[in-house]
Amino acid sequence: MTSTPIAVPSPALATPTNGANGARSFDFLMGPWHIRNTRLVQRLAGCNEWETFDATGYARPLPGGIGNYDEFNAAAWKPGYVGMALRAFCPATQRWSIYWLDNATGGVDAATGLLQPPVVGGFADGKGIFHGRDVLGGRPILVHFEWSLMHTGAPRWQQSFSADEGRTWEVNWVMEFSRPL
After folding, report:
1. Per-residue DSSP letter, 62
2. Domain boundaries, given as residue ranges, for the chain
3. How many CB atoms neighbour CB 152 within 10 A?
4. N or C: which end of the chain has fewer CB within 10 A?
5. Residues β-bridged to residue 178
6. Would you tell me how many other CB atoms lie within 10 Å of the CB of residue 153?
7. Which residue has the higher pLDDT, 120 or 181?
8. Distance (Å, rounded) from C-alpha 101 to C-alpha 32?
9. What is residue 27's three-state secondary structure?
10. What is the distance between the alpha carbons of residues 122 and 25, in angstroms, rounded to a whole number?
11. Which overall architecture, per CATH, does domain 17-43+52-178 show?
């Protein structure tokens, strides 16, 4: 896997979820998973070294159709590390907000006590596209999540960062999901 810049829509053009059932867009993810991770060792640093590791996950709905969450455990990668994606659906905008929480930071900004900013977007044309802003090594970046292959039973998630306001993107993490045997 190489760290190749990719072109994606700007954050202002994040694709909304289509249809009245947008709150069910992540139904494909519910239940247990084996997750094969391929992750760039250093991000936005010209690095071409990738690490691979396995993880387990389990996705569950939140009450009342307001969203879902999943657990991420990668004991062989970082012993004791636990992460969680929290996804909230807004019926008024038909968009999802995805927050990342982990036991290293809690997913909370230490200065404000607020959750770190989410990526926001939705599903259209067989893909889930989500964008947000973050900070990496003290510099502002854009974040891009893309879900694909949801209909295959083996979904794929990919994360990319941009340090130049979206002119170029570096893929830095890919997760390939399969059901445990």
Report:
1. P
2. 17-43+52-178
3. 10
4. C
5. 34
6. 10
7. 120
8. 19
9. helix
10. 8
11. Beta Barrel (2.40)
